[in-house]
From TrEMBL:
Highest taxon of source: Bacteria
Protein's UniProt keywords contain Phosphoprotein: yes
Keywords: Nucleotide-binding, Phosphoprotein, Transcription, Transcription regulation
Keyword Membrane set for record: no
SMART domains with a match to the protein in the record: P-II (SM00938)
InterPro entries tied to this protein: N-reg_PII, N-reg_PII-like_a/b, N-reg_PII/ATP_PRibTrfase_C, N-reg_PII_CS, N-reg_PII_urydylation_site
Residue ranges of coiled coil: none
Record PROSITE patterns: PII_GLNB_CTER (PS00638), PII_GLNB_DOM (PS51343), PII_GLNB_UMP (PS00496)
Homology family: Belongs to the P(II) protein family.
Pfam families (UniProt xref): P-II
Name under which the protein is recorded: Nitrogen regulatory protein P-II
Subunit structure: Homotrimer.
């Protein structure tokens, strides 16, 4: 199994969720996060004073999926979240050694 963490622009969340559901991925965790990379933030004006906004709002989607769904999930996220502009985000993939469903005690594939 793999854990996929995708950091995307917030307005792309619903589109990505719907696209993942179309390929059979329905379970995910979504967090509102802030960060920056090459985008570096921007300046804003508030009550006549200019100030730097260092961290930009993003959304982090976390999925734990079977290995055979990995490439399709990545393709769907990339195709759906891409705007072609800086700040589209990143995808991180890591191995998952073990998953346990707390309610039933099921493990691994059955727990996902």
């Amino acid at each position: 199994m793999k854990k996929v963490e995708a950091i995307i622009k917030p307005f792309k969340l619903d589109d990505v969720r719907e696209s993942l559901a179309e390929i059979g991925i329905t379970g995910m965790t979504v967090s509102e996060v802030k960060g920056f990379g090459r985008q570096k933030g921007h300046t804003e004006l508030y009550r006549g004073a200019e100030y730097m906004v260092d961290f930009l709002p993003k959304v982090k989607i976390e999925l734990v999926i079977q290995d055979d769904l990995l490439e399709r999930a990545i393709d769907v996220i990339v195709d759906t979240a891409r705007t072609g502009k800086i700040g589209d985000g990143k995808i991180f993939v890591t191995d998952v050694e073990r998953v346990i469903r707390i309610r039933t005690g099921e493990e691994n594939d059955e727990a996902v």
